[in-house]
Specification:
It is a single chain. The chain has helices spanning 2-8, 38-41, 48-62, 66-78, 107-120, 127-141, 173-182, 187-193, 208-212, 226-235, 264-270, 277-280, 287-298, 300-314, and strands at residues 14-16, 26-28, 35-36, 150-151, 201-203, 248-250. The chain folds into 2 domains: 2-19 and 26-166 and 315-334, Peroxidase, domain 1 (Orthogonal Bundle); 173-310, Peroxidase, domain 2 (Orthogonal Bundle). By secondary structure, the protein is mostly helical. The N and C termini lie far apart (50 Å). The protein is globular, with a radius of gyration of 20 Å. 44% of the residues are buried. It binds 2-acetamido-2-deoxy-beta-D-glucopyranose (2 copies). It comes from Xanthoceras sorbifolium. Residues 1-24 form the signal peptide. This is Peroxidase.
């Protein structure tokens, strides 16, 4: 707890009590340009957040995998050119067509919410805000801490594959930290946000090297627990033929198909049972990293606080506000390119 509190306490922020008011208030610094309940405060779409929560709940009741899909979508949006909804844009060369973004899902959730909001208060609520709010709501349903989402983002008008710089999931600790720092985030944000891998799945191709040929040794990654390595080799047989299938495996077999958000992700790092290389690497970071991993593994409450802070920081990366960007009518198209003009 020592390190976390030293990070949280000096923050002069506003205290906001959480939605669903079941948990204690979290004190968060207000991001520079965003506002708490923007659409209510400006009296432009009072119940926008209620409509979003309702739609997310409907989808989640049908398919719990929307939670990790939305988290991944938000990460892909915010880390590349900022939280401007650019990942949602269609187009032959758009961000969503980049190799790193293959297999993204949950676009249908965002599109449905947008459709509902366009009926209720047309041209008001940005796709970038919808993505941030919907992700929070889906995480909350999966058991993650509710956290305040500041709003007032506007939507970007550009999206190109070339700007997608999302790193491989096998990068080293130092490379991962440098990447997070290049986006204005810090070590605690990285350790915390990687906890999103508490849920969701990955393709076998991203862990093949760890299972069969770590750093061209012809052996498994020595940092991987042999029990889980054996299990994963059964699920991910060696790829010997072109066109062989590339199955999906759970990032955290412990939460698996029940899609519960827990801190077991951190416990599994300590027992060498992380699936992705970048996750297991946290065990080989500096002492502050280890302190955070142990702190989060030991207590959900510390993780909850840190998670609220880091999600808020990620949601503030390079946001567009004021007269920047636009409010899209359809999240898949800029208004100028919208084929239906609605
Ligand atoms: C490997 O995982 C098991 C649980 O599956 C755990 O009991 C054991 O301590 C782990 N081994 C190491 C070296 O972390
Ligand atoms: C890291 O922790 C180890 C063992 O707890 C200690 O010996 C070492 O001095 C620490 N390193 C730093 C840089 O604090």
């Amino acid at each position: 707890m020592a390190r976390l509190m030293s990070v949280l306490l000096p923050i002069v922020g506003i205290a906001v009590s959480l939605l669903w008011a079941v948990e204690a208030a979290v004190t968060l610094p207000k991001p520079m340009k965003l506002e708490w309940h923007y659409y209510k405060v400006h009296n432009t779409c009072d119940d926008a957040e209620v409509y979003i929560r309702h739609q997310v709940t409907n989808f989640w009741n049908q398919d719990k995998s929307i939670t990790p899909k939305l988290v991944r979508l938000l990460y892909s949006d915010c880390f590349v050119t900022g939280c401007d909804g650019s990942i949602l844009l269609n187009g032959a060369n758009s961000e969503k067509t980049a190799a790193q973004n293959r297999g993204l899902g949950a676009f249908v959730v965002i599109d449905k919410i947008k459709q509902v909001l366009e009926q209720y208060c047309p041209g008001i609520v940005s796709c970038a805000d919808i993505l941030n709010l919907a992700t929070r709501d889906a995480l909350r349903l999966a058991g993650a801490p509710a956290y305040p989402v500041f709003t007032g983002r506007r939507d970007g008008m550009k999206s190109t594959r070339e700007s997608v710089d999302l790193p491989s999931p096998s990068i080293s600790f130092d490379q991962a930290l440098a990447y997070f720092q290049s986006k204005g985030l810090d070590l605690q944000d990285m350790v915390t946000l990687l906890g999103g891998h508490s849920m969701g799945r990955t393709h076998c191709r991203y862990i093949e090297d760890r299972l069969y040929n770590y750093k061209n040794t012809g052996k498994q990654d020595p940092s991987m627990n042999s029990t889980i390595a054996n299990q994963l080799r059964k699920l991910c047989p060696p790829r010997t033929k072109n066109g062989q299938s590339d199955p999906l495996v759970f990032l955290n077999p412990q939460s698996g198909s029940n899609y519960r958000f827990t801190n077991s992700y951190y416990q599994r790092i300590n027992t060498h049972e992380a699936v992705l290389g970048v996750d297991q690497q946290l065990l080989y970071g500096d002492n502050s990293t280890l302190e955070l991993v142990n702190e989060f593994a030991a207590g959900f409450e510390d993780f909850r606080q840190a998670f609220a802070l880091s999600m808020s920081r990620m949601g503030s990366i390079n946001v567009l506000t004021g007269k920047e960007g636009e409010i899209r009518r359809n999240c898949g198209y800029t208004n100028a390119n919208n084929p239906n003009k609605i």
